[in-house]
Structures are given as structure tokens and as C-alpha cells.
Amino acid sequence: MNSFWTGERVRPRGIEPEDWRAFMEMDGYSDHQRSGDMLHPPRSAEGYRAWAAEQAVAKPTGDCFRLAIEALDGGVLVGGISTHDADPRTGRFTYGIGVGGGHQRRGYASEAIVLLLGFMFGERRHHKCKARIYAYNGASVALHRGLGFAEEGRPREHEFFAGRHHDLVLLGITAPEFAERHPFGEP
């Protein structure tokens, strides 16, 4: 018996209270924070413990949820993936992903994204996924293009951090575009 949520390399899963330390470690790298979001003020270990405990019991709000990404080779938490702004009327949602620096370029992100999109398109009936990536993050832009995302816009000097403004790349993929590359399996 297999799980929809288990790939060859990763298993997206609910966040557990003991995951706090791995998330704190990932946030300890400024480059990691900036590649996915922005630089945040330091948080205490107790703050991370409280956050992880809260996430462990949080119920999804519609189709908006946050998952930990666990590597199958060793059961180590390597990152997180989440959905945002899910709108059942329009069938659109946005998602974000972060993989810790020591775990990048191993196929974890691409597999977690494919599992998430398979769920949102094939099980939840969404039609389009949107992603927002800082233009300087060429590896993430290339990853998304390789998965079939198309660039839909590039707001110039849209976000401010590290002392200057940065362009943002808006990417999207539709359910049919995804299914062409990753056919939905039989039940």
C-alpha cells in the first residue's frame, strides 16, 4: 500500500512540534530567508517551539495549508511547502516552497512541488497555480520553468530588501499544462 504523499525522495507531511529545531536552523541563514520571503528579526527557540506546536494542530483554512518536507533517505526535515490565496470560485491558488541550503539541488523541491500540484489540481479541482519568485533567484526560476510554469509578468523593483529594490517574476501553470507533463494516476 502506498501513500499519495510519498514520492521517491520526499514525503510532504504535517508539521510536528519537534520540527521546531529544523525550521530554526533553516531560518538561521539569511540567504535562505531572502530567497523565499524576506529577512525576519531573530526569534527565540521558545518562539520556534510555540510556532511548530501551533502548526501541528492547525486546521487548513479551505485549501490553504503548510506542510513540512521530509527526505525519505534518513527522515530528515529538509524544508516546507505551503498554499496561499486558494480561491475555489476562480480555481486559482498561490504556493511557496523553501528547502534548506544543505538540502538543495537534490530533487527535493521539484518532487514536493509535483506532489502538491497533483493534489491541488487532481484532488481539489483547482485550475491554476501561481508562484512569485525574486528575479535574482535564477535557480528557482529555472526549476519552475522546468516543471512547466510560464512567466506571466515581471514587476520591476517590486520588493525592497538588502538595501535596494528587486524585480519579481510571476509564474503560472494550469492543470492541463501540469497533467501533460505529470498525468494523473488511476485511483
From TrEMBL:
Instruction: Give one Pfam family, short name only.
Output: Acetyltransf_3
Q: Which InterPro entries match?
A: Acyl_CoA_acyltransferase, GNAT_dom, Ribosomal_N-acetyltransferase
Q: Name one GO molecular function term.
A: transferase activity
Listed EC numbers? 2.-.-.-
Query: Keywords, A to Z?
Result: Transferase
Organism the protein comes from: Streptomyces laculatispora
- What is this protein's name? GNAT family protein
In this chain the N-acetyltransferase domain maps to 10-176
Keyword Transferase carried by entry: yes
The protein's superkingdom reads Bacteria
